[in-house]
Amino acid sequence: MKIFLVGGAVRDKLLSLPVRDRDWVVIGATPELMLKNGFQPIGRYFPVFLHPTTHEEYALARSEHKNGRGYTGFLIKTTPDVTLEQDLQRRDLTINAIAQDENGELFDPYGGRKDLENRILRHVSSSFNEDPLRVLRVARFAARFAHLNFNIAKETEVLLAQMTSDGELKYLTVERVWEETKRALLTANPQVYFQVLNTCNALKVLFPELDYLYKISSSSVKYKSYINTNIHTLMSLTIASKFSNSLEVRFATLFSHISIKMVSSIKIYSNLYNLESINIIKQFCQRLHIPNNLRDLALIITKFNNVIFNIEQQSAKTLITLFNQIDAWRKPSRIEHLALLSDVNTYSRFEFKNIKCCTQGNYLRQAFKLTQSISIKDVVDIGFKGEEIRKELTKRRVYILQKKLFNLD
Fold first, then answer.
1. Are the C-beta atoms of residues 152 and 193 closer than 8 Å to each other?
2. 363: Cβ–Cβ under 8 A, 6 or more apart, which residues?
3. Which residues have CB under 8 Å from 235's CB, separation 6+?
4. Measured at the alpha carbon of residue 249, what is the angle toward residues 276 and 344, in degrees to the nearest 5?
5. Coil, strand or helix: which one is 321?
6. Residues 74, 64 contacting (CB under 8 angstroms)
7. Cα 131 to the chain's mean position, in Å?
8. Domain residue ranges of the chain, discontinuous segments joined by +
9. pLDDT tens-digit profile of 187-210?
């Protein structure tokens, strides 16, 4: 029995990146031998075990042969005669097909080290196209390693497009699609994920709602950076990833410009709330089982983007109405999220040029902080009851904004 460190741990070590998880492959063993050595079985579809002390995952070497459609249609062999090279061959990318033995010696039958040095994402073998999930994985790795200037090999790009046209993507479960997308959104360059999917035509298959964004044009006489919605959305996502690690903020950014339309008769920038936009987001989130907190922020930024993106032009009453409608009193974190989204919009609108950015976000934060100084207890103690409490709170909140924010007496 021989044990090798494999996959991401070896790759990240060679890239001088932090190693988060370590996975191991075991050559020449059986499930019975693993159990005898105290390993705990956890694999559902093939033999994977937890180490009795470290609790790291150890998988028996396996080979795979396609016998059906989708990412589950495989015949798996895990007998002791499966070699290390066979196990590495079934992996997606050459940079993930490097193994290291207990003495530190590397085994690299598919040129992974060279591709690491040349910053190339390349598929291991022709069997790559047997697993449609790999389209998403390659896009995610492109996003994850974009800061290191990794590029997808031309032949791999061709294969991604071919896999899309063959219809294999329709066999992916929504859970797997969302899991890969969520992980991509949390990378340093999430926009790359969607760019890759768009290039290989997978975006319109997996995310028809997002593909819709790429087909909506927008135009503005004043803001020349508004070329079309896809460029603006991806630019905004790029900026959002620099501003915040929040998954909610990054997800909402995907939809923050969904209602930008071309008003051909007058050609002005028109950021309108409409039922179509809301329905698109609801459909997207329901179909992919998106968590409610992500869905809600996306709906809020779409419904109120004309107010939020022009927050400094709003009246005190409009601000209080906004806070009421987004339930900010019970969920104050939404204000910070919206402030970040407002700043992202400002940056992307002007392309970082000759402006004092972040004023709108700070304005929103300041306005909400002022209204929070109004005490509900004070209103109740005076004797207000029922609906009168809400009316008095609104009155006081409007007054403090007019006095402190607008300098009106």
1. no
2. 311, 312
3. 191, 348, 351
4. 90
5. helix
6. yes
7. 21
8. 1-112, 207-372
9. 999 999 999 999 999 999 999 887
